[in-house]
């Protein structure tokens, strides 16, 4: 029974992509682009992880920023998910339509850039500390660890920051895995599970160059992101993660 005078908050619903042709097309192309980027950079990452991972952050950030801008509603739907409606009288004025388009683009691009900055400056250190707690080298390889953390943060959390903003209650639901599954939540879960699974080959006595830290972690994160995003958006959308 609800308490009188206290308005209950509606339950979270799955995040839908924007109802545009560009969003419907790009949301399916995006995982292939992310995996292609990593495939192109894989040999360089194996050969010298630090500069290669640092250089790969730029195209990855571009792809993720493009994805959220084209496909997702910013800050829990605060941005318009449909093109702005311009009155007929305004359409007749010179520059009226151009201004509406500019305002709409600004409403998407600014949150996307802020989400990127927050992911790099706030979530990356937390992810790096988590990697250390899970067994990453604590006295060496700091650059390796935190560059891996930056890739994980941009893959898993940039889209979530874009759609949730700084809504503390929703972020508590993220931590508790209480949000319904969609392609954004699926991408996050896939990235984290993939990074965790990527640690499995490291201690195996295969003596392969690609087993060194943090190549397999980052590889698992990229693969997990693509699979989780597709599965969350196409197969498990609307379901809750259960721990029975």
Automatic annotation (TrEMBL):
Membrane-spanning ranges: 109-136, 142-165, 177-197, 217-236
Topology of this chain in the membrane: Multi-pass membrane protein
A GO CC annotation given for this chain: endoplasmic reticulum membrane
Any single GO BP term: GPI anchor biosynthetic process
Keyword terms, alphabetized: Endoplasmic reticulum, GPI-anchor biosynthesis, Membrane, Transmembrane, Transmembrane helix
Localization in the cell: Endoplasmic reticulum membrane
Pathway this chain belongs to: Glycolipid biosynthesis; glycosylphosphatidylinositol-anchor biosynthesis
Name of this chain's protein: Glycosylphosphatidylinositol anchor biosynthesis protein 11
